[in-house]
Design a protein that fits this description.
This protein has helices at 9-24, 58-66, 80-89, 93-96, 117-122, 193-207, 239-261, 301-304, 331-339, 355-358, 437-454, and strands spanning 34-40, 68-70, 73-74, 108-109, 127-131, 151-154, 176-179, 182-186, 213-217, 268-274, 308-311, 320-322, 326-327, 371-375, 378-384, 387-390, 393-398, 410-415, 418-421, 455-456, 461-462, 470-471. It is of the alpha/beta class. It has two domains: 16-22 and 32-358, 3-Layer(aba) Sandwich (Alkaline Phosphatase, subunit A), CATH 3.40.720.10; 371-464, Arylsulfatase, C-terminal domain (2-Layer Sandwich), CATH 3.30.1120.10. Strands 8-7-6-5-9-1-10-11-2-12 form a ten-stranded mixed sheet. A four-stranded antiparallel sheet has the order 14-15-16-19, with helices on one face. A two-stranded parallel ribbon has the order 3-13. A hairpin with a 2-residue loop joins strand 7 and strand 8 (182-186). The radius of gyration is 21 Å and the shape is globular. It starts with 8 loop residues before the first helix and ends with a strand.
């Protein structure tokens, strides 16, 4: 973990005071911190300026300057529903039975007995809202209002699951825009989605300035099809994709501005990250993974390692880079700890409290001995420290990539039993398994434990500690 500059005395004092109050359980409702999680869709590791992108994103650059930026931050699977399930429950999606990308015909969704971030925080009196893409089940029993959210406005699944899909594999019904549990419009003007989500978020902040809140803003963009409002059209040097990213940056700026205006800046933790890497199949309508290998739908770093910035004035040290491994599954236990909320005691939560990392406590390292890369039910790789071991598997690679809003074609490729040192080889190009057999043996043992715990389709293993998804009764 790299420290860019020493902690200031005020930051250390603020952290000590916060820790004291949390440990004593003496925080009153008006003193509880607010949380804002901004979760964009299909943004690549190198799509924003804090990660050396060419697209200008001044508000995200400001967030990074005033907070911390992670270099090794992961989603649980490189696909929509699985990734969102992990974020909201703190669990690998395999543990709770949510895999792939649930469509409008799916009869599955998040189980009623799973606890989301919203439900955990409501136990401490939080007001909660989601404005954006849900994608954990379309049927009423799966909607956000049944899982801890007081307010919901947005799409129930991906914005390409509509009748205008450029390369449909099935017939999609009209795309619903939902308010709470009612469809208020179908096939909405997608050029207004980012603006509408942002307006709702700003209004929510202003309305709830006197009580603690959890605000979740899972943007539909920059998932294809790409849309941008007139005010941002043609503004970037990277075509429509760049315009969309700059509008998302504008949205971040509006949220930060609202927090400042409402006097909540120093009481609010803001987290920005993405649900997976870029969908490279769409060529110039896709993002960039930069130095990372491959993208969405693969368990290479380009598919699962994403940008992540966290900001909380007086509590999170400014302008730092965290090079330790962390993940979206860690957000629930971390926010719960900061709010003094209890996690469910009757089930496994895979995430860890990473506040010691975020607050840059000296000498702190990742709490994860290992991190597991699943694609569906197949365990394809495991990471521990700098080492990542791939097991033999196939993967998809654009050949060729598409363009002008049309997808290309996938070719099926294969990788064998290969070990990479991610600190020295971020692009996963040099197999060093032969030189580090001791490391290989250790990672194989970790993977075997995961197969026992979570299962593995290739070895035909059913996990001993998995829970079912929710299902609609026929």
């Amino acid at each position: 973990m790299k420290r860019e500059s020493p902690l200031t005395r005020s930051n250390v004092l603020a952290f000590v005071l916060l820790s004291f109050f949390l440990n004593c359980g003496s925080l009153q409702g008006q003193q509880l911190p607010n949380f804002v999680v901004i979760f964009v869709d299909d943004m690549g590791y190198a799509d924003i300026s804090p990660y050396d992108a060419k697209t200008r994103t001044p508000n995200l650059a400001r967030m990074a300057k005033e907070g911390v930026r992670f270099t090794d931050f992961y989603v649980a699977q490189p696909v929509c529903s699985a990734s969102r399930a992990a974020l909201l429950t703190g669990c690998y999606p395999n543990r709770i039975g949510i895999l792939g990308a649930l469509g409008p015909s799916s009869k599955e969704g998040i189980h009623a007995e799973e606890s989301t971030i919203a439900e955990v925080l409501k136990s401490r009196g939080y007001t909660t809202a989601i404005y954006g893409k849900w994608h954990l089940g379309y049927q009423p029993q799966f909607l956000p209002t049944r899982h801890g959210f007081d307010e919901y406005f947005g799409l129930p699944y991906s914005n390409d699951m509509w009748p205008k899909h450029p390369a449909p594999t099935q017939s999609y019904p009209p795309l619903p825009l939902i308010e709470r549990e009612t469809t208020i419009e179908t096939d909405p003007d997608q050029s207004q989605l980012t603006t509408l989500y942002t307006q709702r978020a700003v209004s929510f902040i202003e309305k709830n300035r006197s009580r603690p809140f959890f605000l979740y803003v899972p943007h539909s963009m920059p998932h294809v099809p790409l849309f941008v409002s007139n005010k941002h059209q043609g503004r970037s040097k990277r075509g429509l994709y760049g315009d969309v990213v700059q509008e998302l940056d504008w949205s971040v700026g509006e949220i930060l501005k609202s927090l400042k205006k409402s006097g909540l800046d120093e009481r609010t933790m803001v987290i920005f990250t993405s649900d997976n890497g870029p969908w490279l199949l769409y060529g110039d309508h896709a993002g960039s993974a930069g130095p990372l290998r491959e993208g969405k739908a693969t368990t290479f770093e380009g598919g699962v390692r994403v940008p992540c910035i966290m900001r909380w004035p007086t509590q999170i040290p400014p302008n730092r880079v965290i090079r330790e491994m962390a993940a979206t599954i860690d957000i629930l236990p971390t926010l719960a700890k900061l709010a003094g909320a209890k996690l469910p005691a009757d089930r496994t939560i895979d995430g860890k409290d990473i506040w010691p990392l975020i607050s840059m406590r000296p000498g702190v390292t990742t709490p994860h001995e290992a991190y597991f890369y699943y694609w569906g039910q197949h365990l394809q790789a495991v990471r521990s420290g700098p080492w990542k071991l791939h097991f033999p598997h196939t993967y998809v690679k654009p050949d060729p990539a598409g363009g002008a809003a049309k997808p290309g074609k996938y070719a099926t490729k294969e990788i064998g039993f290969e070990l990479f040192n991610l600190e020295q080889d971020i692009g996963e190009t040099i197999n060093v398994a032969a030189q580090h057999q001791d490391v290989v043996k250790r990672l194989q043992a970790l993977a075997e434990a995961s197969r026992e715990d979570l299962g593995d389709s290739v070895s035909k293993r059913n996990g001993k500690n998995v829970r079912p998804a929710g299902k609609v009764s026929e």
